[in-house]
Amino acid sequence: MTDHAVLSLEHIGLRIGGARILHDVSLEVAPGEMLGVIGPNGAGKTTLFNVISGVARPTEGRVRLDGADVTNTPIHRRAAAGLGRTFQTSSLFPALSVLENVRLAAQAHAGGAASVFRIPRRSDAATGRALECLAEVGLAERADADASGLAHGEKRKLEIAMLIAMDPKVILLDEPMAGVSSGDVPAITDVIRGLHRGGRTVLMVEHHMEVVLGLVDRVAVMHHGELLAVDTPEAVMANPTVQSAYLGEAV
Ligand SMILES: Nc1ncnc2c1ncn2[C@@H]1O[C@H](COP(=O)(O)OP(=O)(O)OP(=O)(O)O)[C@@H](O)[C@H]1O
To answer: ABC transporter domain location, by residue (predicted)?
Structure first.
């Protein structure tokens, strides 16, 4: 491992029963880097994110966050150490306002319990932080709307605002464009680009190839649980092994 990696995977392997889900995956991610993870269906992308975030334990190898071995660290402690994963839409509180949802995330990060029964007062520090996060994703003017009334693309922005409120060093985005209408793709792309500009490290699994190739510094290509290539988008697109992994389809 180099001194510079904010996230480091060392020879990660995962077997479930007799099945080899991940095999010898080694990867180093530099601070502030944006890395795309691509690969055909079933390649192991989501499982790799599960290993990084602590949802799954690898059967071989180590995960390091800022140099510290977090391989056996539970999910919530990894989150407190700066590893953030997008909230799914199902984790929004639909009856609360957009602002209140983000404020709960800010409050949870500050050490309070995220509960609908303990909503902090409007004037507190968490409110200010929540408003900043909403401004960062372009949702400030929707602060008072009910979360349930948001359009799908706006909900995605709200999920990202809630993530920012947790102040993560490393952000994992699992298919941020899934279910997003083509009209909303440019706006969500801009929000993700903004995360990166803020100096955060972002890893993104995404099937929408144009989005990935247009956003990331490097692309990691997975196939059958192994890392086939990690390189710039241009080099990956030109890589014959990668092309054959996609069964001859244009990448
Ligand atoms: N808990 C599990 N038990 C058994 N097999 C599993 C388990 N979790 C994942 N797998 C298998 O591991 C492989 C990788 O799955 P994973 O969801 O990580 O792939 P993926 O690249 O994210 O796929 P997709 O692009 O379709 O989301 C698949 O063949 C899947 O069926």
So the answer is: 7-249
